[in-house]
Design brief:
Pfam families: GerE, Response_reg
CATH superfamily of the largest domain: Response regulator
CATH topology of the largest domain: Rossmann fold
CATH class of the largest domain: Alpha Beta
CATH architecture of the largest domain: 3-Layer(aba) Sandwich
Number of helices: 12
Strand content: 5-15%
Helix content: 40-55%
Organism: Nocardioides plantarum
Strand order of the largest sheet: 2-1-3-4-5
Protein name: Response regulator
Keywords: DNA-binding, Phosphoprotein, Transcription, Transcription regulation
């Protein structure tokens, strides 16, 4: 398998170089470029085509939230897909755990966030996880993050109303941060059946992963207690 191409974005030179050394020492991945602000990050993503972007939140010129929004905007994603290129994944780097800016970046499509004091092994595993198309933030952690970052809910989309009763039940459980095993016990279904329902929900709502289900639920006022 080819190496995972990583773009590292942070305004602190020492931090960038330290993380670069860590990533380059891991098997199957390497840093293809670095940027000190969001403007440079957006340019380098187009130029270098990384697989994963490690994106600092707080930077001059353009912060990580706006850079993430631009990189994962639907039109840019569609253009990248049209060329046959793999989707770029963004992991937000932050100093604070329940960070409102991290929550906003996740709403824009980031695949999760890591604290800057994460261990080298956690960083390695997060990059591999996101490259495989999964999220690096557990849904229950994201539920707490979204709950602490209030956004007025928007009207319920037609696509949600077209889910089956069982799919809505599974949707609500995912939004609460339950695992597939926990959901199976709740809805009296096997884990494989739950996975099938989750896959159908993602497809019907055109969402990428379970993290986006949690975000979707909060944005549309569909979170049950």
């Amino acid at each position: 398998m080819s190496d995972i191409r990583v773009l590292l974005v942070d305004d602190q030179d020492l931090f960038r170089e330290g993380v670069r050394v860590i990533i380059d020492a891991q098997e199957g991945m390497g840093v293809v470029g670095t940027a000190g602000d969001g403007v440079e990050a957006v340019r380098l993503v187009d130029e270098l085509a990384p697989d994963v972007v490690l994106m600092d939140i707080r930077m001059p010129e353009m912060d990580g939230v706006e850079a993430t929004r631009q990189l994962l905007a639907p039109d840019r994603v569609a253009r990248r897909a049209a060329t046959g290129a793999a989707p770029v994944r963004v992991i937000v780097l932050t100093t604070f755990n329940l960070d409102d800016r991290a929550a906003t970046a996740i709403r824009h499509g980031a695949s999760g966030f890591l604290l800057k004091d994460t261990t080298p092994l956690q960083l390695r595993d997060a990059i591999r996880t996101v490259h495989a198309g999964n999220a690096v933030l557990a849904p229950d952690d994201l539920t707490a993050l979204m709950a602490g970052s209030f956004v007025a809910p928007t009207p319920t989309p037609t696509a949600y109303l077209e889910l089956t009763d069982k799919e809505r039940e599974v949707f609500a459980a995912v939004a609460r941060g339950l695992s597939n095993i926990e959901i199976g016990a709740l809805v009296f279904a096997s884990e494989s059946t739950v996975k099938t329902h989750v896959g159908a929900i993602l497809r019907k709502l055109t969402l990428r992963d379970r993290v986006q289900i949690v975000v979707y639920a909060h944005e549309h006022g569909l979170v049950s207690s």
